[in-house]
Structures are given as structure tokens and as C-alpha cells.
Amino acid sequence: MQAAVLDLYDPDRSRRPLRRTTPEGPLGDASWEEFIEFWQQRREAFDAADGAGLAVLSAGHASPTASRLERSFRHRFPRAEWVYWEPLGEDHLFAGVRLASGLDLRPRFDLAAATVIVSLESDFLLTESDAIHQARGFARSRVVRGRRDGMSRLYVAESDLSLTGAAADHRLALRGRQIGRFAALLAWHLEQQGVPIGIDAADERPPSAPALEHRAELVARDLLAAGEAGLVIAGRSQPPEVHALTLAINRALGAVGRTVTLRSVDDLGYSGIAELRGLVRRLQAGEVETLITLGGQPAYSAPADFDLPAAIGRAGEVIHCGTHVDETATQADWHLPLSHFLESWGDARAGDGSPAIVQPLIAPLFESRSAIELTALLVRGRERSGHTLVTRTWLDDLLGGSGFERRWERALHDGVLGDAASQAAELEIDAAAVAVAWRSLVERTAAARPGLEAVFRPSAAVYDGRFANNGWLQELPDPVTRMVWGNAALIGPSTAARLGVVSGQTVELALAGGRVEAPIQVLPGVADDCVVLPVGYGRRAAGRVGDGIGFDAYRLRSSDALYHEVGLRLMVTGKRSQPVLTQTHWSMEGRDLVREASLEEYRRDPGFATAEEADEEASSLWPQPAADSGPQWGMTIDLNACIGCNACVVACQSENNIPVVGREQVSRGREMHWLRVDRYFSGAADEPAVVFQPIPCMHCENAPCEEVCPVGATVHDRQGLNAMVYNRCIGTRYCSNNCPYKVRRFNFFNYTRETPELVKMAMNPDVTVRSRGVMEKCSFCVQRIREQELAAKMAGAELEDGAVRPACQQTCPAAAIEFGDISAATSRVSAAKESERNYTLLSELHLRPRTSYLAGLRHPHRDWRAAAEADRAAAPRRPHGAGS
Amino acid sequence: VVAAGAANGRRRWGVLLVLAALVAIGVGSRGWTSRRPPIHLNPNMDRQPKYLAQASSPFFYNGSTTQPQVAATLARGELVEDESVGTGRSAWSGYVTSIPAAVATNSTARGEERFDIFCTPCHGATGDGQGILTTRGKIRTADVVHDERIRQLPAGRLFEIIGDGVGLMPGYARVIPVADRWAIVAWVKQMQQIAADS
Q: Furthest-apart CA pair in chain B: how many Å?
């Protein structure tokens, strides 16, 4: 989200309508007038035919206005088709809820109220929908202020190593089918323990191999103890049966209405894979005369077995509406530029169903139209402005009645209609259907399917590929692998050893008729016999940034197994292609950089984080800040809240004009991020514990960088900021050499010299755009400090605590960062620093850093180790590669 | 020796000629304008690839980096829910005759300051219509203090005029926030009162 501004100012965006005049010729310039004239003729013909032969393939949305316009499109052209395609859709979720309840509802989770959370391959902290709300709730459920506070416990079963898995207290690395079996076992144990889920399997337990029996029983017991504060969440990759079972479990625990509410799905523009399959059939049969694609990159992201590009080629004519001349546009007869959401009117439904208005922040930069303006044009044959369309929807459907203008202004100002969240729906669970689902799950997961399993998952940076042309996101390290500018086939250490592959080897992957070449990256924590394939890379026509970065995992994806597919073949090619990582060291080597304890240990010894530290009050040679020198800025980062999602890193890049340096420079260790998030593994390689630690400049009071600068380019100010004077810097890099935290970055080249005119607009005017030969680093967002100081001075008031919010703090979904005046006893940052968990990094160096950390906590179950041992003892020894 | 002296003399003349040409070019170029930036030996980040307010832009039609707010949008904090404060009118009784309580203050200092900044060029420092535009540009501007017609205007109408303009006067709604417009109204009313009293 923080990177959206760079998408708006993407110089590769298409600027005017294009038209192909000869069948094999190039797309040539055209105008909107020409298109409108063209469409008016077509429209008359389709009017006569009730829209037969007309089809729209749209990207998904949650917009009341877009839904209203879709309805009027269907009304006008009853025989036309309108299909949505989202490569990371939620078919299974909706199907599962319908299976269990007969209703079209969407669950919304209130994790703040949960004490035991079980995730069945749901990466609810990052890549599932509503992730920000969930991350905030999860962090809230784990706030520990004193030894009496409790915190939630998270169990995760998954195939890849997601951020949610990294945050788990207990994690099971399982293949796709085993996750379903774990869900079935869990339900069975709950039923046995008296939770009425409705599965009629009183004395028949599901087969359990590999051995999960004891751990499933333990999780069931823990869930039961949590009661209505227990919660099971299934990910979009899980089959409908798992979602149905999940809903039934939550219902039986009493969690529905407390930690999970089910809300009606209003105004959701969505359809499943079946509808896309239908459209592809009709395209192949030559029944589609005019195909209109509205947003998205369908020709790139559709399942490989559909061969959508070939199908599109059989349409009579193709009208492509998109932000770029992308993969789909290469086959189009018309290309119409779409507006970015920051420059167009729109509306949307929030996670709780509240309608929200989207205002443009700038007039459209190019001759583009938004998706709703285009839909209105298709229906009416004339143009309507986005503002008219949105106000019309709100007048008719959302703010009807008297006094519309005042209520519209209020909603426009607030951005959201807060009191209009959709009602939590009453829920009747169809016990018989759940029992059938359970049985089919048990049966389907009983048969062993040997072989390598491909696991498709969204990229943490470019998601499904839509953000591929965004340099900030390409250079954003993957939170877990720390990989930039590309993706790799991720594989667990023991599977890699068995297959005889190592990181950096290029392999050929073959699945479902598709073949791609991909580099290997060994990653602890990936389930055995699984190969994780992040989608969203390998774009062919994304733009000058995103083209040809990484490999395209969609080429292996088939429509009947969108997330897990067994039967992947892997062939070593002999070529090498080293993925670029920003952190290649994976262990803390026994040092206490990230300090962590279990909740139990914390209760026994609240001061565990600083227990082994020598008393700090050594005298200093350097002058200390005077008492009257104004606010003394400081920061705390709560490692118990941090989920390692990298949002702060992008926010920092956007706020501070940090240049993108490219793959080759990063491979030399020259990335420019002022704030990085370090990731460390601990424990066994196949069952690692993962910790994250954001590292900005620590603003040491005894800053070692300042002592070695020959030109006084880095100095302390009265408020305790370690300031950087760019104009003085002559680039000796002594300071970077002397910084123990390695947070200083050097401009080896003039990265900003050829900044395109459009990208200049994305730069923050309050921050210097640095040139070659200059050192730079985190400034605690000094421009924001000055802005608030001035505002307070003009208003004649004192600077309030919390008025200055650095970009990282403002963006953090988990609210892990506090910033403020550490000399004021009442400030929130002072309160955080009073915590027993507060510690400073490398405190033995006596640098007195202004940034400190609150040690992390985990909440393991005390019987887990015993259960895992019991499972291991019960596990039948199986030859390698047999899979299950 | 003679030949050498002649060569020397010629060289001296040559040097003088070159100098004279340089002086002529230097003096002659003065006052010429160029759109290209001057030669800059140490760039020193003086010019940065970013958009500053009120700078020129080759991209936008208006040639400026400053773009107008998109019509019909409303920023945070811009919403004025009290109709009489936002428009100077109330639904049932037309223009309000006094400054709404929500924005009324005891001090007119802010209004005086804003008046000095925005209004004096035309209306003059005392509001008598003798601003620099009137005295030098011969443009007729209203005497907001003594003109009986203006003195009779209700406060709400004055507020509306400041925001929307009237006749030759442009509207200042985008430049002067609501509270400051009311502060100016208060200052004008006070000036009128003082003029009437004296």
C-alpha cells in the first residue's frame, strides 16, 4: 500500500487509447472519441442481439458502484457474459461456507479476542484478505505489560514458511493433503472431547500418518479450554471441506459471534474458476465476438491448462482495458488506459462491510478512465464522470432519503460510513453436510500420493504479479527468504539433500504440461517433499522494471489444483543462477541480538532480557545532552508485536526518497534501505523458529560514526538526533565502517540522475534527493519532527506526545513501534522503555542507543514437546520419497 | 631584431584583439535570457529531481508543479458541518447577521493580520478602498469602511463575498480558511464601528 504512489507515477503506464488497424500490425495511437464512436456502433448491434457474443473478463473488486454498473450491464445485455478472474481467489472459502451453512457469507476474524488460534495454512498476517485488520488484532492479543497478562497461542499447519508460520508458537510443516487430515483429526478429537461438531464418527478415528495424533489431540484440548475465545482459520489454499469443518468447529466452540463473525458478502465482484472455465470454452468454440478485459493481467495469470492467450486469439475482437500495455494487450484490437485508484473516484466495502468512498488525490495524469467510468460507457454508450457514478450509487443505495448532501459530505470527509457495517449474520450449520465433508476429507486424504508437491503461494512483494513494475517492491526483500528482484523454487534442507540440489542451481520444473526454469533456494521450514513456487514473477510485458524478473510459476498451475499439486518433476540443468539475498547469514551464532523467552520464563524472571548485562552507568568522555535542550527523541520496537512484514521498510523508502539500486548492486551488498528487517532462524533446520528484528539507525548518544568523520558531516543535534549533513559528506565511508549496526548506506552511483519526470512527482519534497558519493541513513524522519514543531509553534501550543510519527511507526500494522520524547516521563515511548523487556542492541559497546527493543515472547504449550515425541515414536519409518 | 619586434607587436595586438572580443561577448550577452541552467561546477544537490511547490513542470498543462485540488473532493479537516459557519447563511433566515458563535473570538488580531495580508492591496490598510491597485492601477475598489451599502451588509454576506468574490474581486475560499474569513469579517465590522463612532 505504501508503494502505491510509485505505481501512480509509473512512467510505463499507457497514456492514450491504442488501436490495431491491421490484423497483424502494431497498436497505433487512437482517441477516446474514436473508441466511443466505434463502441456506439457495436453497442447497437449487441442491443439487437441482447448481448449475445459479448463477454467481459474483469478483475475482482468490492465496490458498490462497480456492482451496480455490472447489474445494469447484465440488464442491458442479458445474454452477455461477465466473468471475474483473480489468480489468488477465494473459491474454496465461499464454497466451504456454503457447504456448511447454505449461505453466501464471509467470516471476519477478531483476533484481539482470541486466546488460542489455529491456522490451517492461512497466512492471515500478510497475504490473506483483511490481513491488516488481522495483524493488528493478533498483535493486540499478544500484548504483555506485566507478569499477570496472558497472551494468545498460535498453532500453524502449513507447507511453505509464511509470516504467520514464523509468528507461530507451534508450527507443523505438512504437505497439502496432510493439512486437511490434520483438520479432520482435530475435528474428531474435539468431537471426542464433547464439542458437538456433528461428525458421526464416534468410534472411528481417521487414519493418522504421518503421526499427528498426539499433537492434534493436544491442539483440540487447548481449543476446548479456550472455548469461545478459540479460533480456527483456514487459508484460501485449503479445500472447501476444510473451510466447512473450520466453520463447524468455530461454531461448536462458541467462537461465532465472538472471535469470528459472518457477514453477508455485499457488492463483491467475484466469480470462481468454474465461470472462467466456461468463458474459456466459449472462447475456444468461437462463440465470443467481442471480449472486453477490464483490469488484471488475465493472459499472464490464468491457469496454464486454460491456455487463455490462445483462447483470446479466437475471439472476434478484443478490447483491453488496463494500466499498461501488458501481456493481454499484445492480443488486443483496442487498448484503453485505466486510471490508478489514487486519481479516480470510486468506492469500496471494508472488511466489516462498511462502505467507503475513494476520492482522487490528483486529476488523471493521462487520458485514462477508471473501471467504473468504462463500464458506464459500455452500458450507456456515453461517458459519465466517476464522481457522478459514485454519488448516484450512494444516493440510490447507501444514503437514500432526505439530507443527502450533508450526509454525503460527512461520509466523504470521514471516508467511510462507519455505522453501516453489514450485520453479523445468524448461522445455521448443516450438521449432515459437515459430516459428509469430514468423511470425504478423511477419504480423500487417506490415499497416499507419492511425489514432489508444488505449492503455489503469493509473492510477499508483488502479490499476484500486479505490482511487478514497482521498483520499490521488487527491491523489497521477501520477509522470510530475504530475496530481492526475483523468486526461486523454495525447498526444505532435507528434501534438497535427498534430491541433491543446492541453492543457486537452476532446475527445470515440469508439471501439468508446463515447463519452467527456476533457481533453487533452500529454506528451512518448508515441508518435506514440497517445492514452494511464489507466483507473480516472470512477467513478459509488465514494463521496464518488471519484465523478465524471476520465473513464471503460473505456467505450472492448472485449474483443478491452484495451490497444491503433486507430481512435480525436477531436473537439474547444470546452469547456475544465484538468487540475490540481502541477508545470507541465517543464525545469530549464539549472540543475543534478538532476545526471546516463553511466557512462563518471563513470569518467573521478568527482567530476563537484561539479566546478563553489566550495570550500564559507566562515565562517558563525550558531552551528554543538556537538560534544557528540548525533546529528546527515542524509539522502541516491540519484538513481541513485530511480525516482520516489511511494511515499515517500504514506508521508509517512500518517505525518504530512498533510491532503487537494482539487482546487480544489491548482490554487491549496496542496497539503500535505511530500515532493514533482519531475520534469524534457530532450532532444527526442518522445524526452525523464526525471529525478526527491524534495524533502523539507533541514534546512539555516543555515536561511533561521528568520531571518525573527518569533515563533520555526521553530528549530533541538541535533541539527540544523529544528523547527516549531505553537503559536507565527501564519501570516506569511515562512519559506515565504524557503525556496529551497519545501518549507514552509501550512494556508490548517482542513482537519481536519470529520474523520469513522473517519478520526480513521487519524491517527497521535504527530503533531499541524494547524489553520488554521499552517505545516508535513518534520520528519525527529521522532516516530520520539524513539521510538527512548526505546527505547534504556529498554534502556540506545546508539541504533544504522539504528534510526531515517523513513517515506519505510522505504517506498522502491529503497532510495534513507539516514538517520542524520552525525557518526558509521561510519553508513551518512556512508558515502553520502562518495560522490563526493554533492552538495547550490543549494549556492551556502551553506545547508549536511542532505539531500544522490547524482547519477544512466545507462548508454547507445556505438553507440546511430549506430544511431538510421542508422535515421532508412533510414526512408521518410511523410505524417503514415498510421500503420503 | 626589427623582425622580432614586429612579431612581438603583432602578438600584442593579437592578444588585445582576443581580449576585446571576449569583453564584447561578455558585455554583449548581458541581459540575454536563456532557459538553460548556468554552468554548475559543483552540483552539490542544489537541483534535485523532485517536485517542489510553485516550481515549473514540463509535464502538466499549467506548467506548474502545483496542481489544483480535484473538484468536489474534500480533505480531512475541511468539513464544516455548521451551515451558518460554512456558508454564512442559515437554512431558514438567510444571511446570518452576526458572526456564528462557533468561530467568534474576543480578539480581532488575527483578522487584522489576515486583512493586511490579503485585502490591503486593493482595499487599503484602513479599508477605505485606497489600496495600491486603486491608486496606481486606477481600478475601482470598494470602500469597505465608509460605503453605506457595504456597512448595511449582514456578516454572512461579507463572509460569502470574501469566499466567492463579487464583481472584479476574485473568490478567496481556496486561499483563506473558513475561520480566517470570519476573522476578517470581524475586523471589517470593527473598523466600520470605529469609523461610525468617530
A: 109
Residue A780: its pLDDT value, please?
94
Give the minimum alpha-carbon distance from B6 to chain A in angstroms, rounded to a whole number: 53
Per-residue pLDDT of B75-130, as tens digits, reads: 888 888 777 888 888 877 788 888 888 777 778 888 999 999 999 999 999 888 88
- Chain A residue with Cα closest to B82: A406
pLDDT at A592: 84
- Tens-digit pLDDT string for chain B (198 aa): 556 666 777 889 999 999 998 888 777 777 777 777 777 777 788 888 999 988 999 999 889 998 888 988 988 888 887 778 888 888 777 888 888 887 777 788 889 999 999 999 999 998 888 888 888 888 888 899 988 999 999 999 999 999 999 988 999 988 898 889 999 999 999 999 998 887
Please, which residues bridge with residue A337 across strands? Answer: A322
Cβ within 8 Å of B, A 453-472: none
What is chain A's length?
Answer: 884
Could you give the CA distance from residue A444 to residue A432 in angstroms, rounded to a whole number?
18
User: Of chain B residues 65-104, which have a CB less than 8 A from chain A?
Assistant: 65, 67-68, 70-74, 76, 78-79, 81
Band of the pLDDT at A883, cuts 50, 70, 90? Answer: very low
Q: What is the pLDDT of residue A474?
A: 93
Reduced to 3 states (helix: H, G, I; strand: E, B; else coil), residue A802 is: coil
C-alpha A472/C-alpha A651 separation (Å) is 10
Taking one residue from A and the other from B, the number of pairs with CB-CB distance under 8 angstroms is 67
Determine how many CB atoms are found less than 10 A away from the CB of residue B55: 12
- By DSSP bridging, strand A851-854 and strand A838-839 are antiparallel
CA gap A49, A55 in Å, rounded? 13
Give just the sign of the alpha carbon dihedral A424, A429, A433, A434.
positive
Q: Can you spell out the DSSP letters for A217-277? A: HHHHHHHHHHGGGEEEEE-TTS-HHHHHHHHHHHHHHT-BTTTEEEEE-TT-B---HHHHH
The three grid cell numbers given for residue B1, joined into one nine-digit string: 631584431
Beta bridge partner(s), residue A677: A694
Interface test with A, best of B40, B45, B50, B59 (most A CBs within 10 A): B50
Rounded to two decimals, the pTM is 0.88
C-alpha span between A775 and A711 (Å, rounded): 12
Alpha helices in A535-646 (DSSP H): 599-604
Contact B73/A360, CB-based, under 8 Å?
yes
SS3 of chain B: helix, strand, coil, percent, to 5: 45, 5, 50
d(CA A785, CA A658): 19
How far away is chain A from the Cα of B145, in angstroms, using its nearest Cα?
30
Q: How many angstroms separate the first and last alpha carbons of chain A?
A: 40
Who among A365, A406, A757 is closest to B58 (CB)?
A: A757
| Integer Cα distance of A113 and A284 in angstroms | 50
Cell numbers found for residue A782: 527529521
Cell numbers describing residue B74: 474534500
Nine-digit cell at A648?
515499515
Q: Could you count the other beta carbons within 10 Å of the beta carbon of residue A253?
A: 24
Question: Complex ipTM, two decimals?
Answer: 0.82
B118 to chain A, any CB pair closer than 8 A? The answer is no
Give the span between the Cα atoms of A192 and A185, in whole angstroms: 10
Reply yes or no: is the peptide bond before residue B68 cis, omega within 30 of 0. no
Query: Residue A147 CB: number of other CB atoms within 10 A?
Result: 12
Q: Is the pLDDT of residue A877 over 60?
A: no
Q: Which residue of A has its CA nearest to B76?
A: A413
Write down the pLDDT at residue A880.
Answer: 43
Which one of A361, A724, A730, A770 would you mutate to disrupt binding with B, by most B Cβ within 10 Å of its Cβ? A361
Q: What is the mean pLDDT of chain A?
A: 89
